[in-house]
Write a structure and sequence with these properties.
single chain; 234 residues; mainly alpha; de novo design (two linked rop proteins); two-stranded antiparallel sheet; 2 strands; 67% helix
Length: 234
């Protein structure tokens, strides 16, 4: 069960994800995307990332914006997958991202579990590689504003100085508690085979020859309005 928002904060990552789903799915006539994009464990992880940003920056609004941008990225990429919008090259890039992100998560866990093992350059390099791959995945599909959201998230969570401060903080203090919760949720996600790490990419289900399956014209029109609105308001 997802962790409740902090008293008085009025913010809950799972709630943000659900609102984003409703807003987008309400405009799309397709049952294939009518499933949750963010499960309970992922929601708990997002809540911990929010708490980390709020504590580290001292800025509640910025912490909320970071997690909201992260949720929007996850939801929109999920829509691209579920509507077979990625071509063969993009699916290969997505698979590479999955491997890199899983490796980054395992590295993060290892740095927490093994004292004095934290390597700022190694972890930030892995995360920056993930950033680059996401940009490549969404390049044909999403607006500059969505690319900006990706950069906003990675500029903070892949910042080596921030990561170093968190890992070197007293484990008995607030940073230590949040870090432990992040690691616990990462472990749980990998054990569960969560969508975050194990999006199944089956070429035979996505392609006929080299052509991506077309969705219906009605759904395609709705999809394009959401993904690339004329007024750039994604």
């Amino acid at each position: 069960m997802a962790e409740a928002a902090e008293p008085g904060s009025g913010f809950n990552s799972k709630s943000v994800a659900l609102r984003a789903q409703k807003k987008i799915l309400g405009k799309m006539a397709s049952k294939s995307v009518a499933k949750a994009f963010v499960d309970d464990t992922t929601g708990e992880l997002l809540d911990q990332l929010y708490k980390l940003a709020k504590l580290e920056t001292g800025n509640k609004k910025e912490a909320e914006k970071l997690v909201k941008d992260l949720v929007k990225i996850v939801v929109k990429i999920s829509i691209l997958f579920r509507n077979d919008q990625l071509n063969r090259e993009e699916i290969q890039i997505a698979e590479k991202f999955r491997r890199n992100f899983r490796s980054s998560a395992m590295t993060f866990i290892s740095f927490y579990e093994v004292d004095f093992s934290f390597d700022k350059k190694f972890l930030t390099k892995n995360l920056e590689d993930c950033r680059s791959l996401i940009h490549q995945i969404i390049d044909r599909h999403l607006t500059a504003k969505s690319h900006g959201r990706v950069d906003h998230v990675f500029n903070y969570y892949a910042n080596g100085d921030m990561l170093e401060r968190v890992f070197q903080a007293n484990r008995d203090g607030p940073y230590g508690t949040i870090l432990k919760n992040i690691v616990d949720n990462l472990n749980k996600l990998m054990e569960e085979g969560s969508k975050v790490f194990d999006i199944t990419l089956k070429f035979e289900e996505v392609f006929i020859s080299d052509k991506v399956f077309d969705i219906t014209s009605e759904l395609e029109g709705a999809f394009n309005k959401i993904i690339k609105p004329r007024k750039n308001n994604t």
